[in-house]
């Protein structure tokens, strides 16, 4: 079987060498992310995923928060310099997407459907994972590189304060994106016999 989707998905890699040489406007990228997230599935059509798309100084602010936070945690100067250099690669991009879960909806569903209450938090994680994968692939289709970072929950309070986000929006990941200044390295795969089973 032929799959254009799989060809595009193969382009979706973790790109760490990012630049700001993206021809698409912030509005075009915002529309791409918005449409992609809205078309991503969620259990009970709960639509718990929230996305904040930041550009310019606002995007830089995310990575300054990360740097400032880790400076207080990473006490070894040499180790912090490596951390700072890594953060600089994210700051060098064109923008940043914050992915969040609206916990208000999760708790409402837990109360509305008590038989499934233990599952809604997990299902919200599945929803945000699907949305991240879809956006990442849509960016790759447009030759925009990205990676997925997880500095939450260390930066949660500062991010909420910096961008005036609702308290019920729980930060789950940060996605820096931009022009691809250097391709991803080769990807290793587990032996397929360890991963897949065909049962007829």
Automatic annotation (TrEMBL):
Keywords: Cytoplasm, Oxidoreductase. GO terms for biological process: cellular response to oxidative stress. The keyword Cytoplasm applies. It is found in: Cytoplasm. PANTHER family: FATTY ACID REPRESSION MUTANT PROTEIN 2-RELATED (PTHR43035). The keyword ATP-binding does not apply. Its main location: cytoplasm. This is Nitroreductase domain-containing protein. It comes from Limosilactobacillus vaginalis DSM 5837 = ATCC 49540. GO terms for cellular component: cytoplasm. Pfam families: Nitroreductase. Residues 11-178 form the Nitroreductase domain. GO terms for molecular function: oxidoreductase activity. It comes from the Bacteria. InterPro entries: Frm2/Hbn1, Nitroreductase, Nitroreductase-like.
